[in-house]
């Protein structure tokens, strides 16, 4: 198989934003390595499916190594896998803490480290994190310290990596959404969540996908935290 076609790795790719990103990158002519804990095989020869738990190093190793074996290169990584649990701080459990840090932090660290090492080999690449605006604009109506701790950490890591790898041809950015109509939020919560935002409505999955695709094509943009949040980060 030709190795000239670009290849994107997408985590949390089985549903919602992740599944939409797989389709969007394919529509742009990319081949895609799609990984998630529970993900069905694809009939598309341009999609390599790698089931596994993103919190484990071995899943990241398999995802990158099988992507290289199948497609010959890694050009982009979208760290989409994530967990969001809203609870009062004192009601978080040890299981909540372990799950959220495992997916949001360990999941990012393992696969990003391996993907960037591959990108360095050909002197170009792009990494995008899906984070949150809540680390910058906390709201007592939606207590989410562990989201702020982990996704806020990814926003900081995005800038740090962008500077570290700027002269090596690798860009690093993040998309920070507000509440989005996805499987994370039951339909009965949509009106209430929309009312929290200055624009008065929740975002769509397509809003996040469009932001990622913009960053993918924006060759002069790195270290950017692109807020797609209905004005949440600007204030109330």
UniProtKB/TrEMBL annotation:
<dbReference type="InterPro" id="IPR036291">
    <property type="entry name" value="NAD(P)-bd_dom_sf"/>
</dbReference>
<keyword id="KW-0560">Oxidoreductase</keyword>
<protein>
    <submittedName>
        <fullName>Gluconate 5-dehydrogenase</fullName>
    </submittedName>
</protein>
<dbReference type="InterPro" id="IPR002347">
    <property type="entry name" value="SDR_fam"/>
</dbReference>
<dbReference type="Pfam" id="PF13561">
    <property type="entry name" value="adh_short_C2"/>
</dbReference>
<comment type="similarity">
    <text>Belongs to the short-chain dehydrogenases/reductases (SDR) family.</text>
</comment>
